[in-house]
Amino acid sequence: MKKRLVIALLLLILLTTINPQQKIVISKFNLKTIIIENNSLLEDKDIKNLLLPIYDRNLVFLKNTEIKKALIQNSFIESFNIKKKYPSTLKIQIFEKKPIAVLISEKKKFYLSEKIDLIEFKNLPNYQTLPSVLGNKDDFKIFYNNLKEINFPLDIIVKYKFYETNRWDLETINNRVIKLPHENYTKSLESFLNLKSKNSFEKYKLFDYRISNQLILK
Predict the structure, then answer these.
(1) What is the value of pTM for the model shown?
(2) Which of 84, 95, 130, 132 is packed most tightly, with the most Cβ within 10 A?
(3) Spatial distance between the Cα atoms of 167 and 180, rounded to a whole number of angstroms
């Protein structure tokens, strides 16, 4: 902060008069280089394209809020750290959102982050096997948090499907379908966890809990 204040004061003094030599000194603090770090899903060039409006701006007077406004245009960016390296370099450490599912809503696709934020969908090689969510973000957020509360193994789920009757179906990696009731579905999920590994239940692919206090197996 002290270093920045000193530089700002020097620039203010220089700006009180105008001559070619002073213009050269001032231009030395213009942003010329941007270094991007810690990004794995986003390419450097995509992030730098967001920052094109601030290139060649005076680094001393460039506000972090202006940098933030540019970066948050990309929905993959969770947060970031900004470091100015005088005279002309900006270093930005990026923290990306991690996709955990693909939301399909009204014929549109989005990634969902761990916080169930919407992320722009694009083909990512390392995220080809994410579970799909047929429904809406808000209902899924409640359902997803309830699954985590009972330690349901999320890695076995390949599809979440929400119905207008306010209930969910789950499809698992071994082609099992769990049909849940619209109320007290955590009890049904706990029941499934108790049964799924028992030998006598291995042959069943459908676990239907929709009728209260009943389980239909097929």
Answers:
(1) 0.83
(2) 84
(3) 6
